[in-house]
Write a structure and sequence with these properties.
It is a single chain. This protein is α+β, with helices and mostly antiparallel strands. The protein is built from eight helices and 20 strands. Helix content is 20%, strand content 30%. The strands form five sheets. Strands 3, 4, 5, 8, 9 and 10 form a six-stranded mixed sheet that branches. The protein is elongated, with a radius of gyration of 23 Å.
Length: 371
Amino acid sequence: MKTMFGGRAAIRARGLQRAEPLSSGSHSLSMTLAIPLETPPMEARLTDEIPSGKGWQFEPKWDGFRCLAFRDGDTLELMSKSGKPLGRYFPEIVEALAALAEARFVLDGELVLPEGETLSFAALQLRLHPAASRVARLARETPAQLMLFDCLQLGAGDFSDQPLAARRKALETFMRDAAGPRLLLSPRTTDRAVAEAWFAQTGGALDGIVAKRLDEPYHAGERAMVKVKQRRTADCVVGGYRLSGDAVGSLLLGLYDDAGKLNSVGYTSSFSAAEREELLAILEPLHGASAFTGTSPGGPSRWSKGRSSEWVPLTPELVAEVIYDQVTGARFRHGTTFLRWRPDKAPRQCTMEQLGYELRPAVLAEVLAEG
């Protein structure tokens, strides 16, 4: 095997956009690996309950960047779910994979980045930066991890048509030598009761559960898995709203921090057309100065696509309970779902302590082991 370190340039970032077709001679990976570089990962469909019956494997759902890792000798690349190369943004993962004795593989996993006792999706996003010097600094200061849970090829063996039971066994054998600070093996169980207990034991710090059929091959690009996500709720102060035409477009949500400042944490807009008109009658009597004494609702951004960023401030009297999925940088990552009004809750009781963050793998493993 060609020496890789002492000649790090031997590891070539060979990422191609999905829009660029891979012919048999356009990329060394496509010529020698059984799994083409443009292969999309198997995906999951969302359901309300963990599936019952025999023949299922259950795993924690990780909050990160889905990633397929391809290695063919000295050529190694990490590919995103959308078919874009990630290797240049995570050099510490490339280095860890390149140091392995096995020179040919295709592995499926999730890039995660622990900060303290939780995972930080915001820190992952910071890696997607054009400056190589900044990426290198972040890789040293806050190294990522690759949580592996499936394999499509190991050595000359193509496992993509093999059932999950065989793929998992091969992955576990591979990880006996490969596991380390940067490369981790995701926990799994075939006991539904254990998977249900994971939800209870982690107190909302687990993003969800993924269920896979043990007897099924790897269905690239298909929603052949099942995912069940945590139902997280938070009671939030309604600190303002945005209009959409002559009706309410969204409610702007806030939470108090330890210093007593109200911080903007996101929005909810899950209302029918009739409800949006009715909301105006509720909100107009509360017009006042901005109550956001910490962070405020943002102005125009590249994501607004021309939509108005103007908002109407309200006195902090209304409390709404909302359903959210994930938290990034002390804000709801996506829009929330309105659940109900909370007239029984004082606005000052709506604090940042309600927000649930996913535990880092090492801490989560300890919690699961205690069960």
